[in-house]
Amino acid sequence: MQKYILFTVLSAIFIVFVGMGIIVPILPIYAAELGATGFALGVIVAAFALSGGLLQPFVGSFSDRHGKKGFLITGLLIFGLTGYTYTLAASVEHMVLIRTLHGAGSAMIVPIAMAYMTEISAGKNVGRYMGMLNIAIFAGIGAGPVLGGFFMDLWGRNSAFYTMAMLSFLAAALVALVLPGRDPLTIQEKQDSMLSVFARMLHNRKVMGILLARMATMIIMVPTFAFLPLLMARHMTASGTEIGMVIASRTIVNAVFQMPFGSLADRCNKNRLLLLGSAIISIGIFSVPFAVSFAALLLLFALIGLGEAISWPAMGALAAEEGHLYGQGAMMGVFNTAMNTGIFVGAMGVGALVDVLGIAWAFYLVAIFLFSSAIIAAAMIRPRQNTCLSTGDKS
Fold it and tell me: 3-class SS at 143?
């Protein structure tokens, strides 16, 4: 049964993130055609993060008590619906509403999938299982932009949105047919009220360090996904396919190295891996405005993907360790709320900066913020003097 659950969750996540990745090269250009300024584009990105971030802790906590399958199917169906409604947007306001609905769907997918993976691992090799999940996510996002750019060049932008809807409905059908109606792996670790659980999390220094690291690493999504297509289109006259390939280079490298670094996180000091990965990402992000060619951007985004492959499994494993205290659904919900908080803060702040200072400063300031936050987070998580293959606490 565990193998069927593992295969189904990974397949569904891969399918839905292919659908999400398809619209990445198209959405900023579409929003600009509707009259979006840099700040308005930030609001469009933030709407997704806000609705998802507000719902995820509650969805995660409810899933610990009532089962995960229903939430996962509902989220996938919402993704399918938004894929169609994107084609109907006629103004920036419409786009904001659609992105809000899209974010609500995300709240029922990613934290639920992470909780499934943590429970399947039964506390063993958590970094490896988180690496598997990240492979599915980033392989999907990596393949999606290439397909999206191709569809936009060949059949127009709406074909990409329709494909996203179709893939999301396909993933929902897969989950409905294969996953059991009840969650045999759910462990009722704590029956405290949701507010009590959340309050205990917020008073835990290590949890807050993990959440800070998660938030900081997600702020980079704003300049890389929202403003990179505009940067390439305006200064390099890049095609949709070239934009998709640059974005894909990051996610494909990330996916390829998830398993090796996930296994490494199970044996080594997770906090050091988190700090190392964040430093590499910061260097890559800071260097983007200096790139003058398609090939240079391709290499820089591959470097960013390597940094994420080092840090993400370690972050997920650290969060899973805390999930044994608070419930995996609740912990992963809060963990992903930190992700959406980063996207929201980045979208609002970076969007305003772009209007005032230009696109380049979005990359400079985000890189500096990420590196500074990673240092603070590492101190909060309190790294111990562990080395590879040592016994005892590995955080």
Answer: helix
Cα separation, 188 vs 61, in Å, equals: 11
DSSP character at residue 108: T
Burial class of residue 322 in the structure, from the number of CB atoms within 10 Å of its CB (0-12 exposed, 13-18 middle, 19+ buried): buried
3-state secondary structure 259-289: HHHHHHHHHCCHHHHHHHHHHHHHHHHHHHH
The whole-angstrom distance between residue 253's C-alpha and the CA centroid of its chain comes to 15
Q: What is the pLDDT of residues 342-359, one digit of tens each?
A: 777 776 677 667 677 777
Could you tell me which of 362, 319, 324 has the C-alpha nearest to residue 122? Answer: 324
Distance CA 172, CA 75 (A): 8
Taking a C-beta distance cutoff of 8 angstroms, is the pair 310, 213 a contact?
no
The answer to whether residue 189 scores a pLDDT higher than 50 is no
Residue appearing with tokens 């080594």: 268
Tokens 């805390």 -> residue = 322
Q: Which two tokens stand for residue 52?
A: 């998802």
Cβ distance 317 to 277 under 8 Å? no
68 and 84 in contact (C-beta within 8 Å)?
no
- 18 compared with 196, residue with greater pLDDT: 18
Q: Is 220 helix (H, G, I), strand (E, B) or coil?
A: coil
User: Scanning the structure block, which residue is given the tokens 């891969």?
Assistant: 14
Pick from 223, 269, 217: which is nearest to 394 by CA? 269
- Kindly state the DSSP code that residue 68 receives in the 8-state scheme: S
| CA separation for the pair 366, 163 (Å, rounded) | 32
Instruction: Return the structure tokens found at 10.
Output: 């990974």
Q: Looking at 86-182, list the stretches that DSSP marks H as alpha helix, in order from N- to C-terminal side.
A: 92-106, 110-121, 126-155, 157-178
Greatest C-alpha distance within the chain: 59
State the Cα–Cα distance between residues 246 and 238, nearest whole angstrom. Answer: 10
Q: What is the dihedral of CA 124, 125, 131, 132, to 10 degrees?
A: -60
- The DSSP letter of residue 267 is H
62-80 pLDDT per residue, tens: 776 667 788 888 888 988 8
pTM over 0.70: no
